[in-house]
Amino acid sequence: MEQTTPILTQVKIVFFDLDDTLCAYWEASKKAMRDTFAANLLPGHTAQDMVRAWSEAFRDFSPTLKKTGWYASYLRKGESTRTEQMRLMLHRLGVEDDALAKKLGDTYAFERNANLELFPEALGVLETLKQRYPMGLITNGPADIQRQEIETVGVGRFFEHVYIEGEMGRGKPLPEVFEMIAAEVGKQPDEILFVGNSYAHDILPAITAGWRTAWIRRDTDIAPSNANEHPEDKPDGAPNPDATIYDLREVLTLLGI
Predict the structure, then answer these.
(1) What is the pTM of this model?
(2) DSSP of 141-167, one letter per residue?
């Protein structure tokens, strides 16, 4: 940890973010994308060309989701926006092929899920905490994809409370999400610890809501994993979390275990 370890004796429930906090979503996503494009090369282009075009299309498309009709379909299922993202990538490379866009999106989703894994220490930390605390999960993303991820990495059994953006119709960092969850679990804000990797979407709104926070920083590339999550640096002058950690086992120390 960057600072002296506080012991949060008042904590009565622990919440986690999912992607890039408990499981290596972005690593799985990058590998899936490379493999998908390598197996479906466009004439005259490399897999890296396709990755670059996808990234450029993402930067244009993802900020518009909540301002357009795409958000409603995104919340229910990831397929429609995933296919549109691939269509926009192909368009940038001069290809107009809706069937290929669908194939690429489906292949990418399958490969991403196949490569998704928990971080090495996550399972042991969850098993230890489960013996002492009720736990919950708060994750952004489409309902079907997030439920699939929970099943794939096998963590559903640890959580009494699961809050998914696609099922709630809203997500982090909206203040009302944190207020609603605190009310539903019947705990005072400072009795709730939230562990997440995104300062803007996990840590800052939790701090604002009065929750205790542990900011996990992973040694991975900081890059967009989906339309709502970007693990970014803390802006100058922004409030500090209770702890900045680099391994989930530090959560146990933080709680005096």
Answers:
(1) 0.91
(2) S-HHHHHHHHHHHT-GGG-SEEEEHHH
